[in-house]
Specification:
By secondary structure, this protein is mainly α. The protein folds into 2 domains: 50 residues, no CATH class; 85 residues. Helices cover 75% and strands 7% of the residues. The protein has a two-stranded antiparallel ribbon with strand order 1-2. Strand 1 and strand 2 form a beta hairpin. Helix 4 runs antiparallel to helix 5. The protein is rod-shaped, with a radius of gyration of 23 Å.
Length: 136
């Protein structure tokens, strides 16, 4: 972590003894006292769940789709008749399954990062509302 980022962020523990931490701006951590403890716990859990997206579920889903869908497509399109066609079908099957896994993983990571940014924006709005209510 760079020195600038380290000075502007602080590790916020997710729970007692779990060893997990979410890095959030210091201004946000100091503003969390404006929320109820249950809200803090909920926000922390949601932000931690989306902080490091891996894309595993979407990668697995697209891999499963390719594992089932590509052979079905080959059957519908016409079974290979020669040894060369069989070899090409097997190679293409492996390549399609790998490509589907990689594509699913990348899409899952992108969607997870977008969801995390969206949750952080929602938290900022919630903190602004809590601050305004407290000052009123």
């Amino acid at each position: 972590m760079s020195e600038t980022v380290a000075s502007e962020t602080r590790a916020f523990s997710v729970g007692p003894g779990d060893g997990l931490a979410v890095y959030v701006p210091v201004s946000v951590v100091s503003s969390l006292d404006r929320l109820t403890p249950i809200e803090v716990q909920t926000w922390t859990r949601q932000l931690d769940a989306t902080a490091r997206p891996c894309g595993c579920k979407s990668g697995a889903a697209l891999t499963l789709l390719a594992l089932v869908g590509w052979p079905a497509w080959i059957v519908v399109a016409g079974l290979p008749r020669t040894a060369l066609e069989v070899g090409a079908a097997l190679v293409s099957y492996v390549l399609v399954v790998i490509a589907a896994a990689v594509a699913g993983k990348l899409v899952g990571i992108a969607v997870g990062r977008r969801r995390h940014r969206w949750l952080r924006r929602r938290l900022m709005v919630r903190l602004a509302l809590a601050t305004a209510a407290r000052e009123a």
